[in-house]
Structures are given as C-alpha cells and as structure tokens.
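User: tokens in, sequence out, please.
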C-alpha cells in the first residue's frame, strides 16, 4: 500500500496541510500513522478529500459529509438527500439567471434613469418579493 506524507496529500489535492490536520481530527479522513511529527495517509485519502470538496461545493456541511463516510472506508451517499440538494441547486441557478439578466439589462438600458425604465422597476418588484423569505 502506498503511504502518502501529509505534504504529498496537500500537493495532490490542493488542500492546505492545516485543513488536512483538521479533517483528520474530526474524523473525515484518517491518518495511518506518523513519520516523526508528520501524518501519513493511505491513497484513499485523496479520493475522500475530492468527495469532501464536491460535498462542500454542493452546499453540504462537514457534519453532513462526515455522515456519508463509513468506518470501513466506504461511502453512503443518500440518494434522496442528493436529489433534494440538486433541486435546491436548480432553484439557485434559476435565481442567478434572473439576476444575471437583470444586471445585463441595467448595464445596457437606454433609459435616462434606471428608475424610469419599466422593465427595471418590474425587476425590482420581483427581486423584492424573492427577498421575503
């Protein structure tokens, strides 16, 4: 089995050594030993860190991600939770597309004042309704 020094893991994953230590301390990844003061990891740490990064990008907390890792090194990705998160991302994409379109309109609107532009005023009303959560 290939053993990776914490510096090697950091280099391969782009994750800071301090973050790797933290992930080890909270049980997201597990060091297999030490060489001096430097932690050593098995090769599975690289794909585990990739899954952690993906989970974080998807909006999962570290606690939620930790719940997906099993003690035996396998991963349990709860499909209903993943579908729910994908649905939430779809909603965020729609909202961001509306925001993008609004910004483009404001940047290109020929009205002398943005408040004189009927489309801009409509966008403000829509944004105001969405802001009420």
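Assistant: Sequence out:
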């Amino acid at each position: 089995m290939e053993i990776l020094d914490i510096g090697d893991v950091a280099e391969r994953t782009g994750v800071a050594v301090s973050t790797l230590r933290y992930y080890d301390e909270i049980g997201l990844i597990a060091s297999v030993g030490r060489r001096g003061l430097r932690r050593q990891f098995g090769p599975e740490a690289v794909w585990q860190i990739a899954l952690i990064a993906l989970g974080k990008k998807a909006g999962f907390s570290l606690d939620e991600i930790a719940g997906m890792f099993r003690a035996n090194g396998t991963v349990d990705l709860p499909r209903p939770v993943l579908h729910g998160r994908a649905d939430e991302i779809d909603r965020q994409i729609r909202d961001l597309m509306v925001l993008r379109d609004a910004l483009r309109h404001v940047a290109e609107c020929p009205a002398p004042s943005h408040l004189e532009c009927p489309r801009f005023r409509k966008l403000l009303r829509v944004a105001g309704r969405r802001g009420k959560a």
